[in-house]
Amino acid sequence: MIQIDALPAFSDNYIWLLQDVTTQTCAVVDPGDAAPVEAWLAAHPGWRLATILVTHHHQDHVGGVARLKQTSGARVLGPAGERIPAIDQALQGGDQVQVLGLDFEVIEVPGHTLGHIAYYHADTDAPLLFCGDTLFAGGCGRLFEGTPAQMHASLGRLAALPGATGVYCAHEYTLGNLRFARAVEPGNAELAARFDEVAAWREQGRISLPSTIALERATNPFLRTSESSVKKAADERNGGPTASPAEVFAVIRQWKDKF
Ligand code: ZN
Ligand code: FE
Fold first, then answer.
1. Residue 208: helix, strand or coil by DSSP?
2. How far is the CA of 255 from the centre of ligand 1 (A)?
3. Which-ligand-closest: CA of 111?
4. Do 127 and 165 form a contact (C-beta atoms < 8 A)?
5. Which of 37, 42, 114, 203 could covalently link to 145 via disulfide, CB atoms 3.0 to 4.6 Å apart?
6. Domain of 229?
7. pLDDT tens digits, 87-119
8. 57 marked as part of a ligand binding site
9. In the sheet where 102-108 sits, what is the strand order?
10. Based on the structure, what is the number of domains in the chain?
11. pLDDT < 50 stretches in the chain
12. Which ligand has the nearest atom to the CA of 14?
């Protein structure tokens, strides 16, 4: 039985902490800072950090990796296509890895960075997705290295996962993302309801994650580029008709950058 908690880091990062309660072994995803993980381990004597998963090379995701490996001896897994500190196992799309006894499949999701990977655990009841800065709740990562077409294809890969899949992304950006989503799709009732729900959670200081793939398909404009409502908004923004869902994606991603 794996329990998952979020360790907040910096202003809006989450370091996901996976805990195998039976063996008191844990794993973390994208520890941009070692301190929150060290504090958790100090507060939980007897627990051992066994694995560090990394999705991409940005400092707010890898800043604590070397130190945590040094203090815990944890195994570091990350993308083969990027420079990751202290990496032990370099992963490519299609690779299978075991973490705390769970099988994860590596999915290549270029766009935010070119080597970005996601970790997917297929499960009939509760599939899990750790997707870093690719798919966010209500939005998606900025295009620092990849093209809109690459990111659009990457998000399509994630959107095709089972609806029940838990989406564990790396930042608390949800409310801002949903504010933009409402500008794109003012007529989406499920989106409006989600905005109100997340606004209330954030007012109480509550985390807005994990999301699910089903909820993202229904409310995240970056997964809805084939919907006529999203195309219409993109066409207006574009000043002329967009030719494909990939172009719709490109237009709304650029719009979001200035929103
Ligand atoms: Zn990043
Ligand atoms: Fe980040």
1. coil
2. 19
3. 1
4. yes
5. 114
6. 2-257
7. 999 999 999 999 999 999 999 999 999 999 999
8. no
9. 96-99, 102-108, 117-121, 128-132, 166-169, 211-212
10. 1
11. none
12. 2
pLDDT tens string 112-147: 999 999 999 999 899 999 999 999 999 999 999 999
Q: How far apart are CA 71 and CA 132, in angstroms?
A: 24
Helices (H) and strands (E) in the chain, counts: 9, 14
CA distance 2 to 163: 20
Q: Is 56 annotated as a binding residue?
A: yes
Tell me the residue type at 186. Answer: P
- Please list, in sequence order, all residues whose beta carbon lies within 8 angstroms of the beta carbon of residue 203, skipping any fewer than 6 positions away: none
How many whole angstroms from 139 Cα to the centroid of ligand 1?
A: 14
Distance 140 CA to ligand 1 centre (A): 11
User: For residue 6, what pLDDT is reported?
Assistant: 98
Output the domain CATH number for residue 19.
3.60.15.10
* Strand partners of residue 78: 90
Phi-psi category of 114—alpha, beta or left, where left has phi over 0 and alpha has psi -120 to 50? alpha
Q: Is 33 annotated as a binding residue?
A: no
